[in-house]
Amino acid sequence: MADVMLGRLARWLRLLGYDTLYDRRAEDEQLVRICRQSGRILLSRDRSLCARRGLQSLLVESDDLAEQLVQVVRLYWRPGTVKPRCPLCNGELQAVDKFSVEGMVPTYVWVTQEEFQRCPSCGLILWKGSHWRRIMAKLQALVMACPL
Ligand SMILES: [Zn+2]
To answer: How many whole angstroms separate alpha carbon 86 and alpha carbon 96?
Structure first.
């Protein structure tokens, strides 16, 4: 469960396959209640929120997205295949045939990309474009730079 400050982190955690809830209108009390009831871990930049009783939480240390991702991924590393989730709604993305999305994505993207994923819940179509590659390269560099 990401708090309202961590929308970008939440979107990337979903892409990395983490079941991540995020609601930018949620009040602190709601976040705490959901975490207590569901056993979800609260991610927050707010020290006092993380210190609430009966709550599993992680105080996110950095303002930098890639450093935030490294912090979370290190603590909650799950080996195995990454099954990306929808950055918008947390649905489990499904690989779809390139020809099934023709005309539904920009022509340049359709011509240059081979792998597409679709969210069965909200219909979002995704591909691993240059932004994805930049973030992943930065993540990899950060992980390599500071071994466990
Ligand atoms: Zn979706």
So the answer is: 14
